[in-house]
Amino acid sequence: MKKILVANRGEIACRIIRSCKTLGIATVAVYSEADAQSMHVALADEAVAIGAAPPAESYLRMDRIAQAARETDAEGIHPGYGFLSENHEFAAAMQHAGLTWIGPTPKTIEDMGDKERARLLAKAAGVPILPGSLRFAFGETAGLREAAAEVGYPLLIKAASGGGGIGMRRVDREEDLSAAFEGTQSMAQRAFGDGSVYFERYIAEARHVEVQVFGFGDGHAVHLFERDCSLQRRFQKVIEESPAPGISDATREAMFDAAIALCKQERYRSAGTIEFILDADTEQFYFLEMNTRIQVEHPVTEMNTGLDLVAMQIQLAAGHALPVRTQQDIRRSGHAIECRLYAERPAKGFLPSPGVLSTLRFPEMLRDVRIDTGVRQGDRITHFYDPMIAKIIAHGPDRQSAIDRMLSALDATQIGGIETNLAFLRKTLAHAAFRRGEVRTNFLEKYRTDLLQP
């Protein structure tokens, strides 16, 4: 491929463009009216306007993205994460238009995007799954309470076709079921165009651990170790790290084996992630979902392995040789941590804080620190899109040194004009419980008072 269209915006679009430049591939950016002066447009070799600011009128318009590819003679398309990245119809349409799709097959995306089907496929591959229900279509309520009782309280109501924790609600009592059910269905319908939901057992002392995989499409796959993503607010990840602290080698290896088994069964192609929920008390783990795309937190793995996952995606799609083929080719060194820096108000329920970045300065020349961003000083964070400012990734020979380097990077970061979660991240990393590796999905809730002090 000589030219790739990046069907995304912001940080991930900039990230993909950088790998394309390294490979000597020209890039095409697409942009909405709100992004006309954005960083990803400036970095690309060409740029095409595709509509108004709301995603439904631009970044979710398959027809306009396809037209942009035709106008610029792009040969490949990389979807990044979010937007249309896990839409099997989009992947199929791009292939039908003669473009090389940089990602898994449309069938794989469809199979894993349907959470009920994904659970069944995982079970068939021998991967343990949590007790859960069948799906409820949008507006369907028959058997609601009976299904919840069978799964058991507390439980989670989850979008059957969604991901990223969007719309997910925890229910502890039967009397709260109906309202939470209706809320999740409504949000799922708005976010994914599919309001169907299902129930899943909730584990109180849980950890969120995922395995980065790479499949070659021929039944062969490798893992690139695990990441702990337990620190979350509103089921959205905030801090990720690798290796996952305090997990036995036996549990780690069992997770790797389970992830590879599912990849081999599905003849998975490209980069992907198998997510597990881990019972912190027993170390029993269960399949959560599979993300059939590059993930926000992929730099953690790249810092530990020295590999460029985006470049590998492109090379595989283009039929080129890859830097790794066997598990023995992959090594992990040291410890890496990623912090997601957001324009948000932690003390006000993490509500977005849109506005102009009057000041934006990142640390310069700090050892083993990487900054992935899609904005510059003077840019505006709008309410139309995810309010992430940057991802800051730090690497060290061990966990404590990685934490110290991350704190140095956060201390050297200056932001003005909007509210951010910068102080919140500092306090989290410096907290004694985090330092001890006591990471849980309820960590931010448990230590909320400590972390939100002025």
Global geometry: globular
Residue fraction in strands = 25-35%
The separation of the N and C termini measures 52 Å
Helix content: 25-40%
Under the CATH scheme, which architecture of the largest domain would be assigned? 2-Layer Sandwich
Biggest beta sheet summary:
8 strands, antiparallel
User: Mean of residue pLDDT?
Assistant: 95
Please tell me about this protein's structure.
This protein has an eight-stranded antiparallel beta sheet with strand order 13-12-9-10-11-14-21-19, with helices on both faces. The chain has a five-stranded parallel beta sheet with strand order 3-2-1-4-5. Strand 2 (26-32), helix 2 and strand 3 form a beta-alpha-beta unit. It has three domains: 3-102, 3-Layer(aba) Sandwich (Rossmann fold), CATH 3.40.50; 131-201, Dna Ligase, domain 1, CATH 3.30.1490.20; 206-451, ATP-grasp fold, B domain (D-amino Acid Aminotransferase, Chain A, domain 1, 2-Layer Sandwich), CATH 3.30.470.20. The radius of gyration is 21 Å and the shape is globular. Helix 4 runs antiparallel to helix 5 and helix 12 (399-411) packs antiparallel against helix 13 (422-430). The protein is an alpha+beta fold and 454 residues long. The mean pLDDT is 95. It contains 16 helices and 22 strands. Helix content is 33%, strand content 26%. The protein has helices at 10-22, 39-43, 62-72, 88-96, 106-113, 115-124, 144-151, 177-192, 249-266, 298-305, 309-317, 399-411, 422-430, 432-435, 443-446, 448-451; strands at residues 3-6, 26-32, 46-51, 76-78, 100-101, 155-159, 169-171, 197-201, 206-216, 221-233, 236-242, 269-279, 285-291, 335-342, 344-345, 351-352, 355-356, 359-361, 369-373, 380-381, 388-396, 414-416.
